[in-house]
Amino acid sequence: MRTTAFDFIVLGAGAAGCAAARALAAKCPDAAIALVEQGSRRHAVPMMQVPALQPFIATSGKCQPFLRHLVGQPEENLGGRALVHTRGSGLGGSTLCNDMRYLRGTAADYAAWGDDAWSWDRMLPYFTALEANTRGALRPVHGADGPLPVSDADRSSIDASLNSHIQRGTRVGVFDALIEEEQHRTPNLVVLTDTRAEQIVFEGRSAVGVLVSDGTGRRLSTRLDCGRVVLCLGALESPALLQRSGVGKAGTVLDLPAVGQNLIQGCTADIVFRALTGMEGATSRSLSARNLPYLWQQWREYQEERTGVFATLAEAGAFVRSRPTAAVPDLSSSSTARRSWAGTGGGGPCAPWTALENEKDSNAQLRRKLEESAKREAVSEELERTLRRDLEVAGGTPAAASPTRWPSTIRSGAAERADQGPAAAHRRRGGYTRVTELNKQVEELEGRAAAANAALREEKEKFSQQLLVAHNALRSSRPATSST
After folding, report:
1. How many whole angstroms separate alpha carbon 293 and alpha carbon 305?
2. Which of 165, 188, 396, 450 has the fewest CB atoms within 10 Å, i.e. the most exposed one?
């Protein structure tokens, strides 16, 4: 078994692991630090960078190499169902697949932990130090000089704001922002990918190393010795590693029954509204198969400008009280672009809706595009027929072997039977000259028509491909209710 020594080992290259490794490398420049990640170093597929496609990541086949699906035990409170927890696997951890909202909770959440070292007042300076918030340095709430981009969502559907990890219409790469872009400042930091932590090695109650495998868990190949271990594997895998290492209920290293207990898993209830009146002038923003013409238009805008409904997901959020007597907020509410309306119907901005009252207008856009394409083809055919008639009037006939090509010299059949006198020769020369000029014009016009037809075919193929991508993305999603 190979052995490698470090001063610090940070397990997990998610948001917490990247922040911890960056801070250690900056504050301890003489220390050797390892950031260990089970996932690969490969870049995530482009679909995972598009904010509006986040709900389809968990079920997309192309995204599976960057995901882990952890299945829990059947729970009585869930009617015997077992929850499936989807986590990211790669540099960035679950920030590769989360909903990109930047929510730090309320002060009451931190106070409930009962630890002054983790209070809201103690944690807030660390939050602001990491932020590069587009709202500016609103001290002491937000910061603007940190490495992590934080911005307000693009207001494509509703008139509200919510901080999110989206920059110029794409998902923020947390690993890139915290580690990759400043690697020249942290030469003492080593990133180990495709490396799974199997067990923490203890001497007494002190952690002295980590046994790691090749990422698949098939074989233990290396022991990483260290002075300290920083555990950042998330709410599920951190306690699992501790239990495998002898820390937990009836543990061989330390008996801590609370390890692996008290998991808080947020539940989501989707609420759908239908607008019956007051929707004049509104535009459907629904990600549904019936709205493909609008989605194609938005997808083209996103590819060109990184704006529109595909450039955002959650656009507004709020912490609310479930009942008036509650002392602190115990519910959170979010509005997304997946099922919403926007417009000025009813005298003001519309709330999120899922009605599709103007579906005919969206389909009419597609029909108009197809009709315009048919008209262009008809004009091209009419132009060819007109040119053929002009040539026939001038005394020429198109070549029968190739109806789309014209001979370089076209002789008049009448001229062949005419006498050989001077007048006939003059007429022939004039006719041949006219035909030659028409041939040149035909070739020039044919070149323009061919270029126009090629551009039209390219536009049709691109349109078909965009529709197919949107259709496949919608079909690959699991059936789910709409969210407000």
Report:
1. 18
2. 450
